[in-house]
Amino acid sequence: MNGKVLLVDDEPHITRNLEKVIPWEMLGLTVGGTAKNGMEALELLESESFDLVLCDIRMPVMDGLELVRHIREKGTESDIIMLSGYQDFAYTRAAIQYGVKDYVLKPIPYDELTGVIARVMANQRQKKKQQSEEQQKIGRMIDLASEKVLYDILMDYTEVTSGNWLFNGEEQELDKKYVLIVLDLDVSSERTKDWREWSDKERKLWNFAVCNVLRERLQQNGLHHAVIQIRDGEWCVLIECEKTLAYNLKQITIWTELLLTAVKNHVKLSLYAGIYRDYADIKALSQAYKMVQQGMQLTPVQEQISVYPNDCAGASREDQAFWDTSEKLIGAVKRGDTSVVDEELKHLTAQLQLMNETSLGRFKPMLHFFVLNLMRETKEMGIFSREQEDLLWLKLDRRFGIKDLLSVILQVTKAVAEKSTDKKKQSERSMAEAKAFLGRNLYRDLSVEEAATHVGLSTSYFSLLFKQTYNETFIEYVTRERMEKAKSLLADTMKSIAQIAKEVGYAERRYFTKVFMKYTGENPTDYRSKHQLVQEEQES
Description:
By secondary structure, the protein is α/β, with parallel strands linked by helices. 61% of the residues lie in helices and 12% in strands. The chain folds into four domains: 3-129, Response regulator (Rossmann fold, 3-Layer(aba) Sandwich), CATH 3.40.50; 155-313, 2-Layer Sandwich (Alpha-Beta Plaits), CATH 3.30.70; 316-431, no CATH class; 476-539, Homeodomain-like (Arc Repressor Mutant, subunit A), CATH 1.10.10. The protein has helices spanning 12-21, 38-47, 64-73, 89-97, 110-154, 171-174, 193-197, 200-220, 249-267, 285-297, 317-335, 338-353, 357-381, 386-396, 402-440, 448-454, 459-470, 474-492, 497-503, 509-520, 524-539; strands at residues 3-8, 29-35, 52-56, 79-84, 102-105, 177-185, 225-231, 234-241, 271-276, 280-281, 305-308. The relative contact order is 0.07.
C-alpha cells in the first residue's frame, strides 16, 4: 500500500513538475494533495494524513517554516523536506530545529530530490517496522503478565476488585467477558500410560508443546486469548469476546474441536474438554473454572467435549458432598495438613457407609477418578519414589472394589503424613531460596516457571506454597519488589528512566512506565521530580 505526499508551493508550475517528473510509484508514494501556501496545507493535514510533505520556504499567507512549526506543535508525524531558492544558513538552521529531514535548493535537481525522498522514505519504513516489532514485543509482554495474573485469579489466589493495584486505572480489564474452556488429560486411559513413565523434563517439554499448539491455533483464528497451564496435563483457555456479542455455544464448540484436533495432530495426545455454559467476567472466572472442573471430575464417563453446568439431574447432594470432601482432602494433602486429611477421610468413609448397593455402584467410578487425581497431585509434590508410584499406578489399572480404593487413599495420605514435617521444613527452605533467587534476578524477565524449576517444584505447587508463605501471588510479589526498587532509584539517583527500567527487569521503557503508573498513580518523571524536590527542600 502506497504512502501519500503533500506538495506545497506557491508556484503552480513547480507542483505540476514535481507531480510529473518524480517517479512517485517507484518510491512507494502517491500525490495525495497540493497547496499554494501553509494555510491551505494545514487545512489538508487536518482532514487527512500524509507520510511526506514537500514544501517551499517562501510563500504568501503562511511560509514554510511557520507551516512546519504548526505541524510539529500538533504532533503530526509526517516527514518534511524543504525546498528553497535562498541559500541562507538561517533558514537551514531553523528547518533543522523543527525536525525537517532534508533541505533541497532551487532550481530543483530532480535526480537528487528523488534520491533524498527515497532515503527519507526508507528510513521512515524502517522506523515503522521497528515500532511495529516493539509494539508486538510489548503486547506479548503484557499478554504474558496477564496470563500470570489470570492464573492467580482462576486459582482464587488474588482479589479481583478495582482497589487491587494490579487493576488500578484498568477498569476496562474488569469489564471484559471470556469464553472459558478447560482441556485435560485422562490419566486413566490406555493412551496416557506413557505419560506416567516420562521424566519431569519430558513432561515439561510436552506441556510446553501443548501450550504452543493451543496458542498458535487460537492466533490463526484471530482470537484474543490466554492459555494458562493449571497443572501437569490441564489447561484453561480463555477467549476474550466483544461485550455486545451473544454467547454462541455452537461456535465455541467448533473452536474447542479445532484445539483438540491441533493437539492430537501435533503432540499426538487426546485431551477432553469442558466448556463453561455462558460468558464469565473476570470476577466470575474462578467460580466458572471450578464449576467446569467439578463437572468434569464428577462425570464418570467423560465425553470428549462437555458443557457445564449441565442440565442433567445427576448432580445430587451426595455427588456435591463427595466433591466438597474430595476437594478439601486434596487441598489438605497438598498443604501437608494431616489433621484435616484425617478428618476428611472420616467424612468420606461415613458417606460411603450410608450408601446402598446401587449408590456404591454409581460412586465407584467417581471414587476411582478421585484417586487418580489424588495421585496426579502427589506426583507434582514428589511424595513417592518412582518405584512406589509405579506400584500404585499398577493397582489403579486393575479392577477392584471400594475397599481397595480406600486402601490406596489411606496409603497416599499416610505417606503425606509421614513426610509432612519434613515437607514443611523443605517447603520453608524452598520459599526462602525462591525469595533469594528473585532478589538476585529482579533485573531479568522472570517467570514463575523458572522460579519453580530453580527450587525443584512444579509450577502449580510452587504458586500455592508462595501464596501461603508470603500472602501474595508471585506476580504481585515480583512487581511490588521491582516497583519499590524503581521508586528508590528514581528518588536517589539521576539514572535515566530507560536505565532504571532495565535494572528492575523491564526491557521496554513504555511497559515499565505503564506498570509504574498502575502501582503509584504517577508517571516516573513526575515521581522523580516530586521526590527529589522534597529532598532538596529538606537538605536546604
